[in-house]
Amino acid sequence: MSGHPHVGVTRQFLGMPTFQTAAREALQDAVLRRNLAHATGTIRAKRARVVAELDNWEQLRLAAEAIKDAALHRLDEHLVEFEAKATAAGATVHWARDAEEANLIVVDLVRAAGATEVVKVKSMATQEIELNEALAEAGIDAWETDLAELIVQLGDDWPSHILVPAIHRNRAEVREIFLREMGKVGRPAPEDLTDEPRRLAEAARLHLREKFLRATVAVSGANFAIADTGSLVVVESEGNGRMCLTLPETLISVVGIEKVLPSWRDLEVLLQVLPRSSTGERENPYTSIWTGPADGDGPQNVHIVLLDNGRTQVLADPKGRDALRCIRCSACLNVCPVYERAGGHSYGSVYPGPIGAVLTPQLRGTASEIDRSLPYASSLCGACFDVCPVRIDIPSMLVHLRTRVVDENRGGIPSAEQIAMKAGGWVMADHRRLSGVEKMAGAGGKVLRSRALGGKENLTSLPWPARGWSEARDAPVPPVESFRSWWERTEGGTRE
Fold this sequence. Notes:
Blueprint: H1 19-26, H2 30-52, H3 57-73, H4 75-88, E1 92-96, H5 99-112, E2 117-120, H6 124-128, H7 131-137, E3 141-144, H8 147-154, H9 171-185, H10 197-214, E4 217-220, E5 224-226, E6 231-236, H11 240-246, E7 250-256, E8 260-261, H12 267-278, E9 286-290, E10 301-307, H13 311-315, H14 331-335, H15 337-342, H16 353-364, H17 369-373, H18 383-387, H19 394-408, H20 416-428, H21 431-448, E11 458-459, H22 467-472, E12 475-476, H23 483-491
Helix pairs in contact: 3-12, 9-10, 16-19
């Protein structure tokens, strides 16, 4: 059973238009905006209710921030310890510098297991490296088992949300996708399928069950990797992950190196803040933890691929590395007014929303137009920082990245703003120069306030190069007399 429509499609993220262009088109889609407003509003309200139940929520956020910072500050040591403990437990640890290496490792492992298909747990890391496409090129089918990921895959689509990848689809659209596509790749949807959520979920379960029972290889990511025990942790809400993590003979987990935590006890805090921030639940429905293989129980061949793919580059930036604290809860997406209106596809990345706007340009660089535009995909309202369970200051990071985008793409030529600031600094460094400029401005003010110009107090249009300023705001007419001149005239220049 092969040739699924999605796995052979290469995502052309880097060929996409800028965020601003894509968002302008998305704003014209009334159905998309209605779907997004309903979904994000529902999740936002659920989160607010369960967070309000805790009187120590801010303390938990501070603790989660400290835990992730401690992990990142000694990341090299924790990774070495994780490898040693995981290997001692019977797992095989692989290191991948980039997406190409990671994909080659996974493809070789699947081939070595003699498999032509894999079942997958929802994983942002495998989407980031486009593993499904790499497997398809090798003649291997990758079946997404998360309900929302299944909808995206069957619909020949791509995710638009970290937590709810099919958030841009409504129930009627999901029903049509199931009826049209399920029969092409497995058990068809019932002919009398309705758009009732219970019926849609039932159709997905029946369709996936044969794949769960047949597959001999599973691919997962991990929410956390525990250094002092060599354990991996996956949290999910549907039970599909538990099926993938326990039934197949071979389990391959692709894990970003930033997912490592120093110790087992760190989970106490993170498993409190993650479900409340992501799904608005007090406790995660399914939390799977494994440490290597166990005799006669679950996968007997356990492989872990530790993925860099630009993460050490992010770690090297003192102002940008905080983005690696992200635990993929998606709370920032659900409160962002820009995301709610523009949707996830406008970001041209598997990481949409505010966190994607700071993480993607750091992982991929700013060589392409879409990546250069992402730091500007925000109003800087600060709502994302307020809800982030690990306190990533996304607004400040966006400003930092905007500066970097400008600096990296100027080609060494100073901007007009830089020239103006340097000129202003030179003038203000000497009171005589400042006095001379004030007298010139006063003379200009007299002319502008003359009867010929109607005595205007503000200017609505200035000549180039100041035209850009006056197009968006009124510019005050310079006073005819500066404070320095007034003081000299009225006080005789005395300083008493």
